[in-house]
Automatic annotation (TrEMBL):
Native source species: Novosphingobium mathurense
Pathway assignment: Porphyrin-containing compound metabolism; siroheme biosynthesis; precorrin-2 from uroporphyrinogen III: step 1/1; Cofactor biosynthesis; adenosylcobalamin biosynthesis; precorrin-2 from uroporphyrinogen III: step 1/1
Gene Ontology MF terms in the entry: uroporphyrin-III C-methyltransferase activity
EC number(s) from the headed UniProt entry: 2.1.1.107
Highest classification ranks of the organism: Bacteria, Pseudomonadati, Pseudomonadota, Alphaproteobacteria, Sphingomonadales
Keywords for the protein's UniProt record, in alphabetical order: Cobalamin biosynthesis, Methyltransferase, Porphyrin biosynthesis, S-adenosyl-L-methionine, Transferase
NCBIfam families (UniProt xref): cobA_cysG_Cterm (TIGR01469), PRK06136.1 (NF004790)
InterPro entries: 4pyrrol_Mease (IPR000878), 4pyrrol_Methylase_sf (IPR035996), 4pyrrole_Mease_sub1 (IPR014777), 4pyrrole_Mease_sub2 (IPR014776), CobA/CysG_C (IPR006366), Siro_Cobalamin_biosynth (IPR050161), Uropor_MeTrfase_CS (IPR003043)
Domain Tetrapyrrole methylase span(s) in chain numbering: 16-225
Protein name per its UniProtKB record: uroporphyrinogen-III C-methyltransferase
Amino acid sequence: MQANPATTGQEGRIGTVYLVGAGPGDPDLLTLRAARLLMSAGLVVHDGLVDPAILAMARSSARLVSVAKSRSRHTMKQEAICDLLVKEALAGNDVVRLKGGDPFVFGRGGEEAEACRAAGVPVEVVPGISSALGASAAAQIPLTHRDHASIVSFVAGQCKGLTDQDWSGLAGKGRTLVIFMGLATAAQISDKLIADGLTPEVPIAVIENATRKEMRVLRASLAGLADLVRDERVQSPALIVIGDVARAESGDTDNSIRALALEAQNMEIGQ
């Protein structure tokens, strides 16, 4: 994408694009920088999975533009999103580009930063708590543990050429594999990892709506991943954790699958 930085609005002023991480869901987990930018923004371009409570922090006069994506439908293609950010900045508007998790972890923040720089638009990246870190912490699943895992890998489960990708060595003894956007391809993921030599009995956990009051933690074996997603009707946002760290605690009443719902009052500070 090319743009002419000489064509600007507001007497030649070029706005700044802020790529802001909204964290895993709970507004309390926003960084101070993210909260301040959001509350002062005149224009917020946001993903569909950003929690409504976070969007409600924007001032009443702010323009909110949704660029929600799903597996089968995009409100706006990525190229058009980049064009929108550059167009608004060249018109003299500061833009808060609000993304779930962290902008640079499967958030396409790199593409948007490149588009802004190519057009001469200032860009600032505001990190957020990655969904992988926020979800695992909320579920009390340590991604690393001296007894179980010293290596962590992040992969995208919804991507082109999934079956051709080499995931060998990413999961197994002493390792934790975290899969983003893996619900729709759960069966292929399970088959792929087992074909690569991972035992079908390896523990997995699916964390749905992490850090929110409707959060669920569902556990099964790798062989049962697809059935778990289907039978429990798991919806996005959800994360898949594979490895010994996902094993149910010894005190759980069911060691193969567990659903955990967090009540709103338990998430309030001071209780």
